[in-house]
Amino acid sequence: MNTLSRTITGILAIILGLVLIIIGFFTFIALIYGIPIFIIGIFIFFNKKEDKIEEIKTKSKNERGGKK
To answer: Distance (Å, rounded) from C-alpha 7 to C-alpha 15?
Structure first.
């Protein structure tokens, strides 16, 4: 996800989680769904390591194995 889509998804999940938590005070079942959605929304919103791409480490010709 790029920064814009991560921000939009995180904010929507946080808002949905908060709404379900508020509704959860009246019906307990909404609280069960609201808390995890809220936590996942916070994780998506603040996750910065996802955009980093790791470099592929290649082995030298002698370490690859195979026929000699």
So the answer is: 12
